[in-house]
Amino acid sequence: MDAVLSTSAAILQTLTEGPRYGRDLIRVLKARAHGTVNPRPGTVYRAAEALVTRRLLRTWIVVPGGRRGARARRYYELTTKGAATAEEQRKALAELFRLVPSPARAKDARLMSDRLRRSAEVSAFALKLQRGVVEASKRRS
Q1: Mean pLDDT to the nearest integer, 27-33
Q2: Which string of DSSP letters, residue by residue, matches 58-106?
Q3: What values do phi and psi take at 35, rounded to 5?
Q4: Which one-letter DSSP state was computed for residue 4?
Q5: 20 SS3 class
Q6: What's 33's DSSP letter?
Q7: pLDDT tens profile 41-88
Q8: Taking a C-beta distance cutoff of 8 angstroms, is the pair 53, 28 a contact?
Q9: Is 34 left (phi over 0), alpha (psi -120 to 50) or beta?
Q10: Helix, strand or coil for residue 141?
């Protein structure tokens, strides 16, 4: 079966629900395709990094503490621009397939989109604040 969405578009749509780390992102993409697609790690990670370069996603690494042999996880999250792009793609697909959302679902989608946009703004501010604290501590040293 031919892919209905590009890997990049599928990643953006999946991340509208919130941040995910790489392997979890692959697992969700595979589950939603009901076995019709088998997203390969190399393809998904390359697409995600391209989205980071385009500033549609932000990424960070969480290093597990205290667990022997545990691997660090790279998380991905939509930026404000990424959330807007995902919403545009969702609308284009809905129009292509003539999927008209019910008024209640449209309202929920708007509310979720607003929440995602605000969350992305708060997250961007937190990252900026964190960088400022790091810079300030370097100057003190």
Answers
A1: 88
A2: EEEEEPPSS-TTPPPEEEEEE-HHHHHHHHHHHHHHHHHTT----HHHH
A3: 80, 0
A4: S
A5: strand
A6: T
A7: 999 999 999 999 999 999 999 887 766 677 889 999 999 999 999 999
A8: no
A9: left
A10: coil
Cβ-count burial of 116 within 10 angstroms (0-12 exposed, 13-18 middle, 19+ buried)? buried
Domains of the chain by range and CATH?
7-140 (1.10.10.10)
> Looking at the chain, how many residues does it have?
141
For the record, the structure tokens of 112 come out as 């979720």
Q: Which residues contact 8 (CB under 8 A, 6 or more apart)?
A: 47, 50, 51
Q: Which tokens sit at 122?
A: 């708060």
Rounded-to-integer distance, Cα 51 and Cα 47, Å = 6
